[in-house]
Amino acid sequence: MLNEERRRLICEILNRDGRVLVGDLAKHFRTSQVTIRKDLDILQAHGRIHRTHGGALPAREGALEDPTLREKEKLHRKEKLQIAAAAARMVREGQVVILDSGTTTTAIARALRKFENLTIITNAVNIAAELSGSSLEVILTGGTLRKNSFSLVGPIAEETLRRLNADILFLGVDGFDVHYGLSTPNLLEAKVNRAMMDVARVVVAACDSSKFGRRSLSLIAPLSAAHHVITDRGIPKSDLSVLRKTGIAVTLV
Description:
Blueprint: H1 3-17, E1 20-21, H2 22-29, H3 33-45, E2 49-52, E3 55-58, H4 69-73, H5 77-89, E4 96-99, H6 103-111, E5 119-122, H7 125-130, E6 137-140, E7 144-146, E8 151-153, H8 155-162, E9 166-171, E10 175-177, E11 181-184, H9 187-199, E12 200-206, E13 218-221, E14 228-231, H10 237-246, E15 249-252
Parallel strand pairs: 4-5, 4-9, 5-6, 9-12, 12-14, 14-15
Antiparallel strand pairs: 1-3, 2-3, 7-8, 10-11, 11-13
Helix pairs in contact: 2-3, 5-6, 8-9
C-alpha cells in the first residue's frame, strides 16, 4: 500500500470513529507502530489531524466553531451512551437535576427516563421534548432560542435559574483545557451555564475525550468549578493526572 493511500484511509477511519490509536492502526494496516507514528506526524503537519499521546483526534476546530446538534450527534456515539449510563448511576430518586444543551446531555436525558421521581431543569428544548412522555417533572427555563443547539439563552433563562436550586448539574462542554477551564463557542450559552453552576450542589462535566485540549471562544468556568468529570478512556494521560491532582473525581467509561 502506498503511503498516501494509507494516510487517506487513516483520515477516513478517524472521521468515522472520532479517534484512532497507534496500536490499532498498526494491526489494521499490518505495519509497524513507527510507520504509523510517522504517518500521524505528517498528517498533523498538514493540519489534517490533531496528534495525541498514543493516537490522534480530528483536526482541532477553531474557537468560533459552533456545529449544529445534528452534526454533533454523529460523533462519538458509543462514548456518549457510556457517559450517559455512568451519569444516570450518580442520580437518585427524588433529586433535582439540571441538564444543559448538547448531545451528551441529551443522551443523559434518555438514560434518566427510567426514573419515576425526578425534577429535570433544562434550557434545551429538545431535551424537554425528549422527556415529555416520561413520568419526570420538567422545568424549561425559557429564553431566546439558539437554533444551532436548540438551547434557550439570555436574561430570562438566567433569571429563572437564579430562582431555583438543584442537587446535580450535568454540563456538556465544547472545550476542556485543564489549564484554562471549561468553554463554549457562544457567549450567551456560557452565561447560562455559569448560572446553572451557581445553583447546583454538585457540578459534573460530562464530555467525551475529544473535548480535551480544546479551547472555545467563551470561558464558562475554571477547572476548579467542577466537582466530577465523566469521560472515556481516550482522555490524554497528562490531563487525567491534572484532574486527579486537583482533587476532581473522575469516572472513566
